[in-house]
Amino acid sequence: MSENKILSDLEIAQKAAILPIGEIAERAGINADAVEPYGRYKAKIDPARLRIPVGKPAGKVVLVSAMSPTPAGEGKSTTTVGLADSLARAGHKVMIALREPSLGPILGMKGGAAGGGYSQVLPMDEINLHFTGDFHAITAANNALMALVDNHIFQGNELNIDPRRMTFKRVLDMNDRSLREVVIGLGGPAQGVPRQDSFDITAASEIMAVFCLATDLDDLRKRLGRITFGYSYDRRPVTVADLDVQGALTMLLKDALKPNLVQTIAGTPALVHGGPFANIAHGCNSLIATRTAQQLADIVVTEAGFGADLGAEKYMDIKARIADVAPSAVVVVATIRALKMHGGVPKDRLKEPNAEGLAAGVRNLKRHLQNVEKFGIAPVVAINKFATDTPEELEWLLAWCAQQGVPAAVADVWGRGGGGDGGDELAAKVAVAVAAPSDFRHLYPLNLSVEDKIRTIVQEIYGADGVEFSVPALKRLADIEKNGWGGMPVCMAKTQYSFTDDASQLGAPKGFTIHVRDLIPKTGAGFIVALTGAVMTMPGLPKEPAAMRMDVDAHGNPVGLF
Fold first, then answer.
1. Residue 419 — pLDDT band, cuts 50, 70, 90?
2. pTM higher than 0.85, yes or no?
3. Of 113, 278, 473, 525, which residue is the catalytic one?
4. Tens-place pLDDT, residues 494-522
5. Are 198 and 109 within one domain?
6. Residue 76 annotated as catalytic
7. CA 489 to CA 467: how far, in whole Å?
């Protein structure tokens, strides 16, 4: 192999020295009887068995978000890992809390969620594939529910369930457009009751959301029982508790609910647990993992999916309402190439210097920074460095951030992470932000109507003039109020690429309207999903899926995995 060859993320991960998971647990302050090893380098942690020193304050949370992402990739997970390693290098007791990757995007086009370069969590290949089986457990629980529902209908339908008004779907952890609309129960009376159905990807399952928002096993059971899976013929909501199977679903999830402990290349402990997408769900790792990390560390570095208009807003307005996990600092990741793309530069010319495109693109970053400030938190900009960035471009962006009064630093954590000095300047600025006072607040009170909550988000966060509801969405609004669900927060399902509901509208558009086509009450998770534009809850694969480059070598080791 040439000495000048740039190693892939997988090759870097395979060459890294990895410590036995027991040593990582000890480094994190986890007592041995709370550790359940899954092989040599992964473990489940049982929060009920943790022995935390009396009087230890909860660790402060650093939330990593980003400007609107582009197909070029911004490296938010890489920055999260590199920042945590750099804070640990500076002497802070740090833990990371990340989401688990979904197989669909891994075999499709997005890539994994374990970081990149020398800022990765290990074992990277196992985390990005089946890991400890959490996604499979969630898929099984979700589909067990629907099997039980359809069996109930077949066996006499004591609950008077209307098969035409089912709101819960089967799921699969894969991008599969063929499953967006299906018909089940064909083949005669012995095969069930025929009805139209559809699949979501597992990351969009309400059971995934319940899993990630539950505070403990008992809360998980209660939330599962509150899930509304459909309506009766007399339009009454029917719940899992009505079917009395919440105990069985809890049993399927009991082991998965324990957070997964792994490590970074630099040996920083990391909890990787739960994986809802932020464009169609709430986009945060499990609450149990975040709180467990807070118990063990002084600083917890976590992230929320996609840009600050999606994951960060949902972290603040959904996750941080349930428990005391409000961030003390928010890092907004930006890249020179993403800024240029938002400034109108075509994707195939992003490697070329373009001062005009860069200057035009900062409008997108500025709106995200202003949005973070609306939650009472002063943001820090992390400029994730790429090899094609010129010194002039980086200096211009640093100067622009200084003019806005926003602390910023260049982070070269892909190439100089793993305990190196690539994130030291960013870590220093984040440490200052963590120590500074903040005045955290939610964007809206829960006593607003659902319609006004949506209007607040689209006007305050997206910059829209207003919102337009389809006829079905208006009918659903009436049902939500009738059933007493209006006090829940809203989870917007919207394209990640734009502030609008049109993925092609980059930058910071003005004078647009957000179109809400449907509303789905997630009564177990405790929020209302608002479907906008053409966003789909079951993605498809691209023309040339990443799977075409993947294989194993003669020893069973993965190749082509990023």
1. confident
2. yes
3. 278
4. 999 999 999 999 999 999 999 999 999 99
5. no
6. yes
7. 17
Is 278 annotated in the active site?
A: yes
The residue annotated as part of the active site, out of 229, 386, 512, 527, is: 386
φ and ψ of 88, to 5 deg: -65, -40
Among 253, 284, 309, the domain-final residue is 253
Q: Which residues contact 206 (CB under 8 A, 6 or more apart)?
A: 142, 168, 227, 522, 524, 525
Known catalytic membership, residue 264: no
Give the structural domain span for 176. 134-253
**pLDDT tier for residue 4 given thresholds of 50, 70 and 90:** low
Q: Which among 76, 169, 223, 453 is annotated as catalytic?
A: 76
Q: Is position 469 annotated as part of the catalytic site? A: no
Which two three-digit tokens encode residue 374?
């609306």
CA distances from 495 to 289, 347, 502, 505 (A): 27, 18, 7, 10
* Count of C-beta atoms within a 10 Å radius of residue 288: 27
Q: Strand, helix or coil at 168?
A: coil
Show the CA angle centred on residue 95, arms to residues 105 and 211, nearest 5°.
Answer: 50
Residue 539 inside a domain? The answer is: no
pLDDT 10s digits, 137-184: 999 999 999 999 999 999 999 999 999 999 999 999 999 999 999 999
Residues 277 and 410 in one domain: yes
213, pLDDT greater than 50: yes
| The token pair that represents 311 in the structure block | 């994951």
CATH no. for residue 156? 3.30.1510.10
- Measured distance CA(512)–CA(502) in Å, rounded: 10
SS (H, E, C) 394-452: HHHHHHHHHHCCCCEEEECHHHHCCCCCCCHHHHHHHHHHHHCCCCCCCCCCCCCCHHH
**Do 339 and 422 fall within a single domain?**
yes
240 and 145 in a single domain? The answer is: yes
H and E: helices and strands count for the chain = 20, 25
217-226 helix and 206-213 helix, angle to the nearest 10 degrees: 150
58 shares its domain with 181: no
Domain assignment present for residue 444? The answer is no
- 306 as an active site residue: the answer is yes
**277 with 418, same domain?**
yes
Cα 45 to the center of its chain, rounded Å: 21
Boundary (domain end) residue, out of 406, 435, 464: 435
Report if residue 380 sits inside a domain.
yes
Burial of 45-68, coded b for 16+ CB within 10 Å and e otherwise, reads bbbeebeeeeeeebbbbbbbbbbb
State yes or no: is 429 an active-site residue: no
Active site residue 99: yes
Backbone angles phi, psi at 511, to 5 degrees: 70, 35
Q: Is residue 77 part of a domain?
A: yes
Q: Are 98 and 272 in contact (CB under 8 A)?
A: yes
Whether 110 is catalytic: yes
Q: Same structural domain for residues 242 and 296?
A: no
Write out 272-325 in H/E/C secondary structure.
ECCCCCCCCCCCECCHHHHHHHHHHCCEEEEEECCCHHHHHHHHHHHHHHHCCC
- Can you list the pairs that 234-241 forms with residues at least 24 positions away whose Cβ atoms lie under 8 Å? 234/160, 235/165, 235/479, 237/483, 237/523, 238/159, 238/161, 239/523, 240/145, 240/524
